[in-house]
Amino acid sequence: MERRAFVSEKELEYQRECAERVRAVHAGETAWVDTYGCQQNEADSERMRGMLRDMGYILVSDEHADVVVINSCAVREHAEQRVFGNIGHMTHTKKENPNMKIILAGCMAGEETVREKVRRSYRHVDALLDTTSFWRLPETLLRLYEDGGRIIEDGEPDSRIAEELPVVRTSPYKAHVSIMYGCNNFCSYCIVPYVRGRERSRLPEDVIREVRELAESGCHDIMLLGQNVNSYSGGGKSFAELLAACAELEGDFVLRFMTSHPKDCSRELIDVIASHPKVERHIHLPVQSGSDEILRRMNRRYTAEHYISLIDYAREKIPGVIFTSDIIIGFPDESEEDFERTLDLVRRVRYDSLFTFIYSKRSGTPAAEMPDPVTHAEKVERFRRLNALQDSITLEDRAPLVGRTMRVHIDGESRTGELNLTARTQDGRLVSLKGSTELIGGWHTVKVTGVSTFSLSAELA
Ligand code: SAH
Ligand code: SF4
């Protein structure tokens, strides 16, 4: 039964044949995968880069490349506008290089409204490739080269898993590992279930093998990814069991995961975090709102009280655990009282940091039909108040860290300021420090010298 959720070996073999045929003619040309949005898109882009590399392309970061794949995000309207803006600019680039192929991939490619818009107004885009069919990239390029024309197909997301795709990882030390794809939750504001298809889990042995290989290759920071990791169910294993199995592998790595949905976050999972030192002491647990009425209309299927009980349980079991969250401000008809409930919850939980968003209407979702009398100015004001509250909590709770030593992984160079290196603590906080670039790629002990809402500053201890 379960294998039906997978793309067959025969289909993958066909993609490899297409890749060979593209390679025979186009090896040595350049390709750019430009990524927007979440870690899931980053992970998909690494696979698309793998396929492009196998087709003989030289990977670049340049819109003048011979192949440009835009891996887009559809979660908020603003993200879409940015992508359309950038695609718009490419009309000129394509005039200079008429053989160039432009492919719009990612979440936007799964939207009917986007398909229509691209058909009518963005005629220089050659193909759309949604998140459930990006494994067909070799076939898509071959058809574009051999048949000409455009490839914009309607239809439902494919909802199968393609294993064994080639990969070019962005960093040797940090890796994203998708453990599942799609989403079945249909939160009323969210477009993800429509564009990423039904939820499906990879088999645990495939995930464990990937994590083992990463750990053996010296990867130090491994993040397990899914829209709702807590509803993972591959080969009869729960997420807590999968996480425990990965955390028991050999190697000097920290295991992160996101995203947990509060309705499915089990006490068993919290116990696994508590008893496995390789799992980060941090839970990203998006609450979205502190008002039960708004949560009900969001179709989140938990109450603020249930959420708090999870936080309390985790704090009791995992000393020092930190929490982060996503919050949407200005969901349709959010009252001042609903908003105050969100502030109360933020005061009660004391997050380490928050990702805050102003509600964005996504066509085709149930919330898009809900009346929304609250003005944009009011939403912006609430957004400001929430962020000011969180900033003060972040600074208060981080202040006692000054003077403490901690283990961090130095990830890379910073683009700004005199603290030239960036690092991450085991619980996922960003750190800036000064030091030799030779330290990049290793674990080091540092002493915290200052804190901000954005990061910790530190010096080597
Ligand atoms: N699957 C994850 C996150 C998905 S999208 C989860 O359920 O937590 C990441 C975040 O974007 C969401 O948590 C939500 O806070 C925000 N988001 C999603 N749709 C949105 C919309 N229409 N308007 C504003 N923010 C939105
Ligand atoms: Fe969107 Fe909700 Fe699914 Fe997250 S759980 S992807 S917010 S529908």
Task: Provide an overview of this structure.
- This protein starts with 8 loop residues before the first helix and ends with a strand.
- The chain has 461 residues and is an alpha/beta fold.
- The chain folds into three domains: 3-147, Methylthiotransferase, N-terminal domain (Rossmann fold, 3-Layer(aba) Sandwich), CATH 3.40.50; 174-399, pyruvate-formate lyase- activating enzyme (Alpha-Beta Horseshoe), CATH 3.80.30; 402-460, OB fold (Dihydrolipoamide Acetyltransferase, E2P).
- It has helices at residues 9-26, 39-54, 77-96, 112-121, 137-147, 192-196, 204-216, 239-247, 267-275, 292-297, 304-317, 336-349, 376-398; strands spanning 30-35, 58-59, 67-72, 101-106, 127-129, 174-178, 180-181, 200-201, 221-225, 254-258, 282-284, 322-329, 353-358, 405-413, 421-425, 430-433, 443-451, 456-460.
- α1 (9-26) packs across α5 (137-147), α8 runs parallel beside α9 and α12 (336-349) runs parallel beside α13.
- The mean pLDDT is 96.
- The structure holds S-adenosyl-L-homocysteine (SAH) and iron/sulfur cluster.
- S-adenosyl-L-homocysteine binds next to β12.
